[in-house]
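Interim report, section 4.2 (structural modelling).
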Amino acid sequence: MEFELIRLASKIFGAKREDVIVGAGEDDCAVVRVGRSNLVLTADNLHEKADFPPGMLPEEMGHMALAVNLSDLAATGAKPLYFLYTITLREASKDFFVRVLKGMKALAEKYDVAVVGGDIDFGDELFISGFAIGTADRYVTQSGAKPGDKVCLTGLLGKAQLSLEQLFSGIDRNEIAYPKSLFTPEPKINEGVEIARHANAMTDISDSLAVSLNLIAEKSKVGIVIYEDILPLDHLTPYVDEKKALELFLYAGGDYELVYTSSQCTHGFEVGEVVEGSGVWIEGKHGRNKVEFRGYTHF
Amino acid sequence: MEFELIRLASKIFGAKREDVIVGAGEDDCAVVRVGRSNLVLTADNLHEKADFPPGMLPEEMGHMALAVNLSDLAATGAKPLYFLYTITLREASKDFFVRVLKGMKALAEKYDVAVVGGDIDFGDELFISGFAIGTADRYVTQSGAKPGDKVCLTGLLGKAQLSLEQLFSGIDRNEIAYPKSLFTPEPKINEGVEIARHANAMTDISDSLAVSLNLIAEKSKVGIVIYEDILPLDHLTPYVDEKKALELFLYAGGDYELVYTSSQCTHGFEVGEVVEGSGVWIEGKHGRNKVEFRGYTHF
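Predicted structure of the assembly:
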């Protein structure tokens, strides 16, 4: 449903002005031309019931709100510059508010992002919307993948969802496998800027590798084949069986790694290749099977 | 409480980079320098229970989400260029979503604003956060008012709140006094850009004239005197008595007019003057009385 609505929005706001290079719903970010700069713009919405794992600290909520937006900029190869947020608080607690902002600030300082604005109000559920602005000399979209490209990943997948499932099964947050992946995922800012120098297509993995690759395949009008025997699952198999590990790797979200296609995997490792045709496929001991357009980030 | 939290946020994000000219919580918008352009940035959050009057149409919600952000840009004297939104829908209704976006689009086209991005999810309450970007050669803040300046208003006040109170008293939305002020307020975009050429201080009136003038007085370190006998109340007195009309004019919000201080009132009319000292005062048949720091936009 979400993707259907995005397509609708893209149609409604489709007529583009000359200065709008990448418009609404087309990609991870919009790209517009102001003066001599390519401005890269993105907006992301988080709310308690859908996006914050149980037991998440206020500092981690602030971190997360900024991280998901920076990850979109990274996916386009942009250097982040500015961030604004809107926040709806459940209670007029100064302490809670300050802790959210401190989490945001710590991540902002790490990547030299200036938090320049915010809007605060009160309601029944905690909401944080974020808006990030960056610049890019060369930006990369989801639509440039070419047959012959390698498909590369900046890091391991499935860690956030594995940790979330452990949390839901009653394991304490100090005992889950990858708490950092779940509570304070790191946007791949520097990697994104460097990869953008050579990649033909790129996106981040917020929903799942499956969703990201299907978007690249669809928009680039190519096929993608993933090779099962080169997918690293060793970080998952101590906790789940191999079938579940593969499911997590392909269909789980929340790790905020980058997937890109290029002639070379300069960052991270290779998982497959771009081919003529359409669709996303996994080749392994069970033959060649379709990788479906689905993910599960929200709980 | 909201203003206290804004001050806290301003302190937390206070250390400014060289390219940040007006930072978090300082004014209606942030102003940053990218290349040779002054980018003007703002974010505003609206949600159903606090910001949308009963019976508001989806198109009007879309209009409102964009209008409040454009009004902030107008208050800084910026020409609007781009808009992004995040929306949380209560139900997966394509029709509702499309109507919200069409309302947004109609206003966007009127002022040549490109809607370049959005994020869509689902929850228990309708939320729309907006993020607007503009540019300004000369921008105006709340902190430049000078003793001797005239205090000017671009239009009449109290119409939105009067109409809201009529609605709550059971009057049909087709019969209330100023439905356009309540449901589709018009941001003063062109006025803002023109006024910015000469004004010393400016802001929009989202909460109330009282809040806006107190912010200008506080940040400009001046006093402001409003003259009761020149305040136009004729648009309110057919519906309420004179005391209530004055209360609405001073303390009601939602009309999204601009208030500015300058040597000349080029747009709209004069309501008072900037003086040495501090505080906001109203001078009239009951002598000189303090204009309190309060408003009531939310219901």
